[in-house]
Every structure is written in C-alpha cells, then in structure tokens.
Amino acid sequence: MTMSDGELAAHLADVAGRILLEIRASGVFSGRALGNAxxxxxxxxxxxxxxxxxxxxxLLSEEEKxxxxxxxxxxxxxxxxxxxxxxxxxxxxxxxxxxxxxxDGVATVGAVALPGLDGGTVCRSDKPQSMGPVHSKPRMxxxxxxxASEAVAVAEKLGAELIPMGSAGxxxxxxxxxxxxxxxxxxxxxxxxxxxxxxxxxxHGLHCSRLDGSPLLYNQRDTYMPDLLICRQEWVTPVRxxxxxxxx
Length: 248
What we know:
38% of the residues lie in helices and 23% in strands. By secondary structure, it is of the alpha/beta class. A hairpin with a 2-residue loop joins strand 3 (96-103) and strand 4 (106-113). It folds into two domains: 5-124, 2-Layer Sandwich (Fructose-1,6-Bisphosphatase, Chain A, domain 1), CATH 3.30.540.10; 139-247, D-Maltodextrin-Binding Protein, domain 2. Keywords: Magnesium, Metal-binding. GO terms for molecular function: 3'(2'),5'-bisphosphate nucleotidase activity; metal ion binding.
C-alpha cells in the first residue's frame, strides 16, 4: 500500500534517525568526523528513498548539490539529514532529522525526528498532539552558542525564561511539545532548517511567520531565510510589540 505524504515523511525521518544512532554507537567516528559521516549517510538514504517513492517531485537537501529544476515543481521535498550536526557529534540530544514537503511554496507536510531523546520521537504534521497549557511566564528557546540579540531583547521585555538549545528543529519542537512557548530566530537560516519544523508547528496550531509577519516561503531560488517566529498564538502580539519597541 502506498504511503501518504505524511506517513512517508515520518517513516523516512524515523529511519534516518535510527541510522544516525547506529553510526554514532559504532564508535568508528567521533567529533567532526562523526558529524560528516552521519550527514553523508543519512542524506544518501533520504535522497534515494524520496527519489524512489516520489520520482515526479522536486528535491532540496542541505547535503545535495542544488538542482534548480525543482523551481518548476509544485511539490518539492526539503530535507536536512542532520539538523544540529555539532550536537549530534557531541552526543547531545538536541539534534534532529527534517523531512518536509513544500507545495506551491508552503511548508505543507513535515516530520521532525528527535532520535537523541529517550526512546526517540517523531513530531508529525499529520498527527498533531496536544501541547498542554501555555506557561504563565513565557519560555523562549534560543541558540546555546550564539543567541540572537533580538531574541534576548524580546525575552527581557517579556520577562521570559531563556532556554539554550541546539538545532532549529529541536527548538521548534520544544514549542510543539509544550516545553517552550516562543522560538524567535534572527541569525539567518536556510530552507531545510525550518521547512519541516514549520509544517509540524503550523499543523499544531502554532503561529509561524517571518519576524515582520510575512509568510515563510519555500522552494525559492535563493534558499536563505533571514528570520522566523514560531510561537503559541497567545504570544504573537506581545512578541510583535516587543520587536517594535526594540526597533524604536
């Protein structure tokens, strides 16, 4: 039986995550070499699997040479084999595997595997879960190595608790899983960093946009994306007001 797009995304993200854990557990690689080996192996698996399962669709991967033929496709799979390569290489838990499908430039289907968590988990756009109550004191996830100045300034204005974390997928899924309320990023990313997380977050009813409120568009010729905001709906206006205050 043919898998739905959502089932395919979740299956591939899960299997890629298991492959990455096996590579790490082998002990053959460590540090940067581990990250490189994981990236290459997971990318090879995802690219071959997607081309086999959806041969008519376009494909964009962080680890694959970009083919602009994708620009003529309405349906484009966008993947990041290891989001948070540094964290993966350091045997941390805050890394992820992203598998997404953008349709007409919109992040429509997505799966984000978090293999490093106990037992592993896959957050899916086709099976949204309850996020639980919003925190009375907002919790904001930021980069553990270089938190964006705008995020720190907004946190100060909102009285938010900062939660340092690794990969973009791990940060976005912290909001999806109810562990945090706001993910604000202004340091620049690429389409593969956010497409799957945005698809999953949007399916869970979260707000997803650029910092200026404009939509996040995918399958663009230039894959660079300057900023994004993923947050609980209750915090959209306070965050925007805080950003406006910073700009003033």
